[in-house]
What does this fold into?
Amino acid sequence: MNLPPEILKKVKLLELQSRKLVNNIFSGEYHSAFKGQGMTFSEFREYVHGDDVRNISWNITAKTGRAHIKKYDEERELSTLLLVDISASGDYGSGSFPKGELIVHLAALIGFSAVQNGDQVGLCLYSDEVEHNVPSKKGRANMHRILRDLLYYQPKSKKTCLKNALSYLQGALKKQTNLFIFSDFFDDNYELVLRRMARKHDITVIVVEDPTEHEIPDLGFIDVYDAEADEIITVDTSLRSFQKNYANMAQKRRKELEKTFRSMGVGCVFIDDPKNYVDPLIAFFKRRNR
It folds into this structure.
């Protein structure tokens, strides 16, 4: 694939930024939060004071005449999948870059953290259907491909339907997976299939929002374009009643999402500041470790 030079430049810059964050502050938190699937036998060694007596191998002890224990290593090979919403609502943003670009940075950070830990990483892009897949593999080369596709892929549909994406993955994922879902979650009817998948997979939803989706400034009469519905609505943002109702609705929506995901055993992180998306992730991973 011949990519435009500006895309290649973005890929390199995004890799440098993400790997710097991973190496400096993020890798340890990720490793602790997402541990291996179990323990696997490594070797026998002689017992030393302080070892767990439950790990003593009595057969080897009897043969050698000295106490030996079984040594185990954590099974670190995990499979991580980045499920990314590429619908038109990702084009919205009031600051330096839109929600969709913030999602790319978040996915890169999670992806390189997984690569740093020797895990397989894959990508699934969805709108109202699954549009693109990158199979899960180890290594930086595969992560480079994921970055290229995150930056370069052009969606076929403006709409979103998480239910369809999850239904597809329910049949496609054959082994337990760390599934990260990146979206603004302006969607519905996905709860049942998400609950079913959470019984088998470790799922974390990363809800990406714009600050103006919580509090709207006084801009007078404005035309608001709904990219997914392809329609324009005129609102008067100067009305205090409008601003108050707007903020209350946003707060209510967040609480409902938190309650829904908590009831499923699904981890949840809200990101609403493009300038600081690392701290909320670290805080979430620390909570997982408690």
